[in-house]
Amino acid sequence: MTQKVQITIDGKTVDLPVLEANEGLNVVDVRGLIGEGIFTYDPGFLSTASCDSSVTYIDGDAGILLYRGYPIEQLAANSSHLEVCYLLLNGELPTKSELDDFEKEIRSRMDVDEHFQVIFDGFTEDSHPMSMICAAVAGLASLYHDGLDIYDADHRREAALNLIAKIPTLAAMTYKKSLGEAFVKPDPSLNYAENFLNMCFGTKNKAPNVSPTLARAMDRIFILHADHEQNASTSTVRLAGSTEANPYAAMAAGIAALWGPSHGGANEAVLDMLNEIGDESRIEEYVAKAKDPDDSFRLMGFGHRVYKNFDPRATVMQESCHAVLDELGLKDPLLKVAKQLETIAREQDYFIQRRLYPNVDFYSGITFKAIGIPVKMFTVLFTLGRMPGWITHWNEMLSGGFKIGRPRQLYLGPSARDYTDINQR
Ligand code: CMC
């Protein structure tokens, strides 16, 4: 039965249709309200669906995350990042030959034009890698003048392949730049994660020597980050894309949004926090700060806008984290602090009542550290993983009817008043 919601405005009853979701909550279609001379108000989009989408489904209470219907746990256990990219972009898992062709297309696009590499000369070695990758991705638009027709599906596909293929190369270049070392060219004989690790840790003349365990852990991290429905950066990509901006500019906008510590920057913030805490004796002090309503400090890597039970990505990430630490034989003291924090958060009322659980960034930060990735690079790796999600949402929006994203406001400023001369103020 078609549901509707009735609201009364100044004595007039207005029917609002309810749109049915395949999974999860239905939504009230409020588009007709503007005709009644009233807006809805929802800062932070706590109750607002900004679009319809068929890409990713999250049930935050049950801890479920599905890409195109497939549970994240199954994809992390059985799939590869490139297969997940194909799934997100095309809606279905590839056959063997479709995957082979897709991988070939990615391999053939991994190189970055030599002229373009000088863009990194404008940065110093201590520049934040996120500022470099943001500029580099926006700059890619300058290489594809003839491929920027956003209404041409072939152009959109080409941009998607370019971005997925080149983002590891650009990410590794930011890393090499921060070390002051020469860039290492992509090696198409390696898989996606091996190639990335080789471009980071290899040198121009040294044969690749990448541990399969570390490469697998890295590939899983990319899978876990590949999409997360309408989060802040994906919504930013959609908003920027809705102005008809080119895909490279729209992705750069997403990268900027991801940078913040409440979003992708949290993995970096987790490590900064663990380093600041230092050892187990200081944990209580920091937990007390997190609980103090007068202190803005938060436990980084805890809590999520959508997951209010557990973050399924965190469960997979925890396994990968332990596999990496075992392989490397590391007994990182920060891991002890992390474990203790996790226990406290699971036991203390403050965290239980607010349903604050460790999120994916809590474990990814520790894993990156063990692999030898510097803290400032963490969010760049999130960027690399999230690229297929952003481009898929951008493409989904452009494939259907869309309008420029233009929110309205509740105006609380002064009413119209006359300008007064500076001598009379
Ligand atoms: N530590 C301590 N208290 C917290 C935390 C935290 N990490 N997160 C939320 N709270 C408290 C908050 O103070 C508030 O308490 P009260 O009701 O007494 O005012 C309550 O929990 C609800 O918080 P909120 O800010 O309304 O929740 P939100 O849904 O707007 O925020 C969040 C979600 C992820 C921004 C927030 O939990 C946070 O800042 N976490 C730390 C940063 C982090 O780990 N971010 C990564 C998210 S996962 C990666 C991704 O998908 O982007």
What does this structure look like?
By secondary structure, this protein is mainly alpha-helical. 48% of the residues lie in helices and 6% in strands. The chain has 16 helices and six strands. The strands form two sheets. A three-stranded antiparallel β-sheet has the order 1-2-3, with no helix packed on it. Strands 4-5-6 form a three-stranded antiparallel β-sheet. A hairpin with a 4-residue loop joins strand 4 and strand 5. Helix 8 packs antiparallel against helix 9. The N and C termini lie far apart (63 Å). The structure holds carboxymethyl coenzyme *A. The site of carboxymethyl coenzyme *A has 20 residues, from helix 15. Carboxymethyl coenzyme *A binds next to helix 15.
Give the SSE map.
Elements: E1 4-9, E2 12-19, E3 27-28, E4 56-59, E5 64-67, E6 70-71, H1 72-78, H2 81-90, H3 96-107, H4 129-139, H5 153-179, H6 192-201, H7 212-225, H8 232-241, H9 247-258, H10 266-277, H11 283-291, H12 312-328, H13 333-347, H14 349-353, H15 360-371, H16 378-399
Antiparallel strand pairs: 1-2, 2-3, 4-5, 5-6
Helix pairs in contact: 2-16, 4-5, 4-9, 5-6, 5-16, 6-7, 7-12, 7-15, 7-16, 8-9, 8-16, 9-16, 10-15, 12-15
The protein binds carboxymethyl coenzyme *A (CMC).
Residues 228, 231, 262-264, 266, 290, 298-305, 354, 356, 359-361 line the site of carboxymethyl coenzyme *A.
